[in-house]
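User: Hey, my collaborator sent me this sequence without any context and asked if I could get a structure. I don't really work with proteins. Can you help?
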Amino acid sequence: QARLQESGPALVKPSQTLSLTCTVSGTSITTLYHYWSWIRQSPGKGLEWMGAIADTGNTYYSPSLKRRISISGDTSKNAFTLHLSSVTPEDTAVYYCAGQEERGGTPQWSNYDYDYWGQGTQVTVSS
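Assistant: No problem. I've predicted the 3D structure and written it out in structure-token form, which is a compact way to encode the shape of the chain:
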């Protein structure tokens, strides 16, 4: 059973880049048919899928965030990292990393039917 743990700053200033790392244990991020996502939930709103990286290293991004987001993997640390640039207070949210196995092609990201979840980490954007 995989376990995921988010880490990164709790407070980020506007216009800066938010970087969060998800460290995976119990399985490898290169395990076949596995996808690793970043998801967030802003106050009073539902879950928002932000992007993902596949076992192959291919990346997938939400169209609404595409200009500001990048996700990278580090096989030596068995981790993947979110970078979100030019943050504003609207990016304040609880950020989750999650993983899933999908053998039938690209997952339906917004079903949120993930096999593994991190506990989430609160990030506040404020000066």
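In plain terms: The mean pLDDT is 96. You can pass these tokens on to your collaborator as they are.
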